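Morning, I've got a small favour to ask if you have a moment. It would help a lot if you went through both lines with me. I owe you a coffee for this, so here goes:
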Amino acid sequence: MRRAEMSGPEMSTGPRSAGPGWRERQLLLAIAAVLAVLVVWLRGGLQPQAPLEALARRSPELSMALADGRPTLVEFYADWCEACRSMAPSMEAIERERRGELDVVLLNVDNPRWQPELERYAVNGIPHLELFDAGGGNVGHAIGARTAGELETLTAALLGGEPLPRLAGVGAVSRLDAGPAPALTPSAGPRSHG
């Protein structure tokens, strides 16, 4: 039986009967799928990165951040830390909104590369923030989880060159050269507790 003579259920249902342009549409769809996979692969692979890891990969080197004339917010974190993960969206927002004004640097405490910094800044709990002025001077730290509002307040103080706000777990770095030591009276010796 010739093709023209076939009718009903005997008629071919293959690609030729799918209508004009069917092959072209299928080819364009296949090309689009290949391009989508290629874009995903080029942007970092098919495995999703943790938000903190992605932010850490974008952050500048600590030494460069401290020398570029901008205030710096350093977070010591770990991917397994729930409090660190809860702060990640706020940290990403600050990094995105303040890019060019403020450096955001993330250092993973599980990476032995950062051991000297862990010791230097006495990091013994996370999240731990170290705050630096535009000259690279350490002005304080914040220990524990921070809300988006608290992070914005800390950021505003750094950008404005103002003293750090009074928040639980936030402390300024004391300066040994801040002025003359107060005179001790004879009744107020180191063992007097008075």
Q: What stands out?
A: Strands lie at 72-77, 103-108, 128-132, 138-143, 170-172. The CA atoms of residues 37 and 46 lie 8 Å apart. The longest strand covers residues 72-77. The first helix runs from residue 22 to 42.
